[in-house]
Design goal:
single chain, about 190 residues, alpha+beta, 3 domains, four-stranded antiparallel beta sheet, three-stranded antiparallel beta sheet, 4 helices, 13 strands, about 30% strand, rod-shaped
Protein backbone atom coordinates (compact mmCIF):
# COMPACT_ATOMS: atom_id res chain seq x y z
CA UNK A 1 0.00 0.00 0.00
CA UNK A 2 1.42 3.34 -1.04
CA UNK A 3 1.06 6.50 1.01
CA UNK A 4 -0.78 9.30 -0.73
CA UNK A 5 1.38 12.37 -1.26
CA UNK A 6 -0.20 15.72 -0.60
CA UNK A 7 1.05 19.26 -0.55
CA UNK A 8 0.85 21.06 2.74
CA UNK A 9 -1.04 24.33 2.65
CA UNK A 10 0.72 27.26 4.27
CA UNK A 11 -0.57 30.56 5.62
CA UNK A 12 1.32 33.63 4.42
CA UNK A 13 2.81 35.63 7.28
CA UNK A 14 2.17 38.87 5.38
CA UNK A 15 -1.26 38.70 3.74
CA UNK A 16 -2.60 35.72 5.77
CA UNK A 17 -3.82 33.97 2.57
CA UNK A 18 -3.42 30.22 2.23
CA UNK A 19 -1.03 29.00 -0.47
CA UNK A 20 0.70 25.87 -1.74
CA UNK A 21 4.39 25.89 -2.71
CA UNK A 22 5.32 26.50 -6.32
CA UNK A 23 8.30 25.27 -8.29
CA UNK A 24 10.64 27.76 -6.61
CA UNK A 25 10.06 26.29 -3.16
CA UNK A 26 8.84 28.14 -0.09
CA UNK A 27 10.01 31.54 1.03
CA UNK A 28 10.25 32.27 4.71
CA UNK A 29 11.45 35.03 6.99
CA UNK A 30 13.95 34.03 9.61
CA UNK A 31 12.94 35.29 13.01
CA UNK A 32 15.39 36.30 15.71
CA UNK A 33 15.18 32.98 17.54
CA UNK A 34 15.42 30.59 14.61
CA UNK A 35 17.86 30.68 11.75
CA UNK A 36 16.41 27.70 9.93
CA UNK A 37 13.84 24.99 10.41
CA UNK A 38 15.04 23.48 13.67
CA UNK A 39 13.73 20.79 15.96
CA UNK A 40 13.29 23.31 18.76
CA UNK A 41 11.49 26.20 17.12
CA UNK A 42 10.83 28.98 19.62
CA UNK A 43 8.81 31.11 17.22
CA UNK A 44 6.89 29.85 14.22
CA UNK A 45 8.52 30.48 10.88
CA UNK A 46 6.84 33.26 8.94
CA UNK A 47 6.05 31.67 5.56
CA UNK A 48 5.69 34.09 2.65
CA UNK A 49 3.49 33.46 -0.39
CA UNK A 50 4.74 34.04 -3.95
CA UNK A 51 2.47 37.10 -4.41
CA UNK A 52 3.93 38.83 -1.32
CA UNK A 53 7.48 37.97 -2.41
CA UNK A 54 6.72 39.52 -5.79
CA UNK A 55 5.39 42.70 -4.12
CA UNK A 56 8.48 42.83 -1.89
CA UNK A 57 10.82 42.48 -4.88
CA UNK A 58 8.83 45.13 -6.80
CA UNK A 59 9.37 47.55 -3.92
CA UNK A 60 13.14 47.36 -4.61
CA UNK A 61 12.96 48.14 -8.33
CA UNK A 62 15.05 51.24 -8.87
CA UNK A 63 14.70 54.21 -11.16
CA UNK A 64 18.16 55.63 -10.38
CA UNK A 65 20.97 54.76 -8.02
CA UNK A 66 24.02 56.87 -7.25
CA UNK A 67 27.00 55.96 -5.12
CA UNK A 68 27.56 58.74 -2.57
CA UNK A 69 30.92 57.56 -1.17
CA UNK A 70 31.82 56.03 2.19
CA UNK A 71 29.48 53.08 1.73
CA UNK A 72 26.25 54.93 0.91
CA UNK A 73 24.01 54.85 -2.15
CA UNK A 74 21.18 57.22 -2.88
CA UNK A 75 18.29 55.30 -4.43
CA UNK A 76 15.22 56.55 -6.20
CA UNK A 77 12.82 53.65 -6.38
CA UNK A 78 10.40 53.03 -9.26
CA UNK A 79 7.49 53.79 -6.90
CA UNK A 80 8.85 57.36 -6.44
CA UNK A 81 10.23 56.96 -2.93
CA UNK A 82 13.88 57.75 -2.17
CA UNK A 83 16.28 56.44 0.41
CA UNK A 84 19.95 56.64 1.32
CA UNK A 85 21.19 53.14 2.09
CA UNK A 86 24.35 52.15 3.94
CA UNK A 87 26.15 49.04 2.76
CA UNK A 88 29.44 47.27 3.36
CA UNK A 89 31.76 45.35 1.08
CA UNK A 90 33.42 42.21 2.35
CA UNK A 91 35.68 40.29 0.01
CA UNK A 92 34.32 42.34 -2.88
CA UNK A 93 30.66 41.50 -2.20
CA UNK A 94 28.10 44.12 -1.24
CA UNK A 95 26.15 43.32 1.93
CA UNK A 96 23.44 45.10 3.89
CA UNK A 97 23.07 43.77 7.42
CA UNK A 98 20.28 45.94 8.79
CA UNK A 99 17.59 45.25 6.23
CA UNK A 100 16.37 42.35 4.11
CA UNK A 101 16.84 43.01 0.39
CA UNK A 102 16.58 40.90 -2.75
CA UNK A 103 19.78 39.66 -4.40
CA UNK A 104 19.19 41.71 -7.58
CA UNK A 105 19.18 44.89 -5.47
CA UNK A 106 22.62 44.05 -4.01
CA UNK A 107 23.84 43.47 -7.56
CA UNK A 108 22.55 46.91 -8.61
CA UNK A 109 24.47 48.49 -5.72
CA UNK A 110 27.59 46.60 -6.84
CA UNK A 111 27.15 47.97 -10.39
CA UNK A 112 26.76 51.54 -9.03
CA UNK A 113 29.88 51.06 -6.90
CA UNK A 114 31.87 49.66 -9.84
CA UNK A 115 30.79 52.57 -12.08
CA UNK A 116 31.79 55.05 -9.38
CA UNK A 117 35.20 53.42 -8.95
CA UNK A 118 35.72 53.36 -12.73
CA UNK A 119 34.77 57.04 -13.03
CA UNK A 120 37.05 58.00 -10.10
CA UNK A 121 39.91 56.05 -11.64
CA UNK A 122 39.40 57.79 -14.99
CA UNK A 123 39.52 61.18 -13.28
CA UNK A 124 42.84 60.67 -11.51
CA UNK A 125 45.69 62.90 -12.56
CA UNK A 126 48.26 60.66 -14.22
CA UNK A 127 50.70 63.36 -15.34
CA UNK A 128 51.57 66.49 -13.39
CA UNK A 129 54.47 68.56 -14.66
CA UNK A 130 55.76 71.79 -13.14
CA UNK A 131 57.86 73.61 -15.74
CA UNK A 132 59.99 76.40 -14.27
CA UNK A 133 62.40 77.69 -16.89
CA UNK A 134 63.66 81.20 -17.57
CA UNK A 135 61.07 81.99 -20.25
CA UNK A 136 58.45 79.33 -19.42
CA UNK A 137 56.54 78.80 -16.21
CA UNK A 138 53.50 76.59 -16.33
CA UNK A 139 51.84 73.54 -14.86
CA UNK A 140 50.74 70.80 -17.22
CA UNK A 141 48.41 68.05 -16.10
CA UNK A 142 46.64 65.13 -17.69
CA UNK A 143 43.96 62.85 -16.23
CA UNK A 144 43.38 59.19 -17.05
CA UNK A 145 40.25 60.18 -19.02
CA UNK A 146 42.51 62.17 -21.43
CA UNK A 147 41.53 65.54 -19.97
CA UNK A 148 44.59 67.79 -20.17
CA UNK A 149 45.27 71.44 -19.51
CA UNK A 150 48.06 73.93 -18.91
CA UNK A 151 48.05 76.74 -16.38
CA UNK A 152 50.65 79.50 -16.66
CA UNK A 153 52.06 81.12 -13.56
CA UNK A 154 54.75 83.49 -12.34
CA UNK A 155 56.28 84.04 -8.96
CA UNK A 156 55.30 86.92 -6.70
CA UNK A 157 57.76 89.01 -4.66
CA UNK A 158 57.69 86.56 -1.78
CA UNK A 159 57.90 83.44 -3.95
CA UNK A 160 54.20 82.63 -4.06
CA UNK A 161 52.52 81.41 -7.21
CA UNK A 162 50.52 83.97 -9.18
CA UNK A 163 48.42 82.10 -11.71
CA UNK A 164 47.41 83.58 -15.05
CA UNK A 165 43.83 82.51 -14.19
CA UNK A 166 42.51 81.16 -10.88
CA UNK A 167 42.76 77.33 -10.91
CA UNK A 168 39.04 77.06 -10.03
CA UNK A 169 38.23 78.90 -13.29
CA UNK A 170 40.46 76.60 -15.34
CA UNK A 171 40.01 73.08 -14.00
CA UNK A 172 36.90 70.98 -13.45
CA UNK A 173 36.10 70.22 -9.81
CA UNK A 174 37.43 66.64 -9.91
CA UNK A 175 40.84 67.97 -11.06
CA UNK A 176 40.79 70.91 -8.69
CA UNK A 177 40.37 68.54 -5.74
CA UNK A 178 43.66 66.87 -6.67
CA UNK A 179 45.54 69.96 -7.89
CA UNK A 180 46.76 71.35 -4.55
CA UNK A 181 47.99 68.03 -3.22
CA UNK A 182 49.82 67.29 -6.49
CA UNK A 183 51.40 70.75 -6.41
CA UNK A 184 52.54 70.34 -2.78
CA UNK A 185 53.90 66.90 -3.57
CA UNK A 186 55.84 68.25 -6.56
CA UNK A 187 57.26 71.17 -4.58
CA UNK A 188 58.32 68.98 -1.65
CA UNK A 189 60.35 66.77 -3.98
CA UNK A 190 62.04 69.82 -5.43
Amino acid sequence: MMNKRTFKTFTCGECKNKFKPENEGIWYVETKDNLAVQSTIKEPIKWICPDCIKKWEESFKTKTMEYMGNGYVYVEFANGSTQTIKFETFTGRVTIDYMDVPQFFLQEIQVALDEYRKEKQSQEIVEFELVDEFDKQYIYLKAANDYENTLKFRYGRTGEFIFEKPPQDVFPLYILKQFNSKLREKLSRG
